[in-house]
């Protein structure tokens, strides 16, 4: 992680938890870790756990003038979706600020889907985020 990102994370952790290392983490604390959430989202954008999503079409589907027949298997390459320069300028750069509220509003609804989308998205997405934020409370991770 870049030093400036680490500094922002530590500042946010200090603001929320102070110096009390024995204090229990609450759900409100986790929700208040806004910058850390941006870091986690940017990490998931670059290092998506499931870089490919496959679906079988339930009906004939027309896309860009082509008709794909029912039963066809379609594959979405999340790896490339998350590196689309039109959605994520300088896509190889680690930049958590992409996910600040004023910037994330520019990301299309399905432009960022590290856990899939719709009814079949990853059910562990919230647990992963909660566990990561809880571990980060340790503060001295390198």
Automatic annotation (TrEMBL):
Family listed? Belongs to the cytochrome P450 family.
Keyword check for Coiled coil, yes or no. no
What function does this protein fulfil?
May be involved in the metabolism of insect hormones and in the breakdown of synthetic insecticides.
- Name under which the protein is recorded: Cytochrome P450 4c3
What GO MF terms are annotated?
Answer: heme binding; iron ion binding; monooxygenase activity; oxidoreductase activity, acting on paired donors, with incorporation or reduction of molecular oxygen
Q: Which cofactor does it need?
A: heme
Cellular component terms per the entry's GO annotation: endoplasmic reticulum membrane
Record keywords, A-Z: Endoplasmic reticulum, Heme, Iron, Membrane, Metal-binding, Monooxygenase, Oxidoreductase
- Known InterPro entries for this protein? Cyt_P450 (IPR001128), Cyt_P450_CS (IPR017972), Cyt_P450_E_grp-IV (IPR002403), Cyt_P450_sf (IPR036396), Cytochrome_P450_Monoox (IPR050196)
Binding residues annotated for heme, in chain numbering: 122
């Amino acid at each position: 992680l870049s030093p400036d990102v680490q500094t922002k994370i530590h500042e946010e952790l200090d603001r929320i938890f102070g110096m009390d290392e024995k204090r229990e983490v609450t759900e409100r604390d986790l929700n208040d870790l806004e910058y850390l959430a941006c870091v986690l989202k940017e990490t998931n954008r670059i290092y998506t756990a499931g870089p490919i999503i496959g679906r079988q079409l339930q009906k004939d589907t027309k896309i860009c003038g082509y008709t794909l027949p029912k039963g066809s298997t379609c594959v979405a390459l999340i790896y490339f979706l998350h590196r689309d320069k039109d959605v994520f300028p300088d896509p190889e750069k680690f930049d958590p600020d992409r996910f600040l509220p004023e910037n994330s509003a520019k990301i299309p609804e399905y432009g960022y889907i590290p856990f899939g989308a719709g009814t079949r998205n990853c059910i562990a997405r919230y647990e992963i985020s909660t566990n990561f934020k809880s571990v980060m409370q340790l503060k001295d991770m390198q």
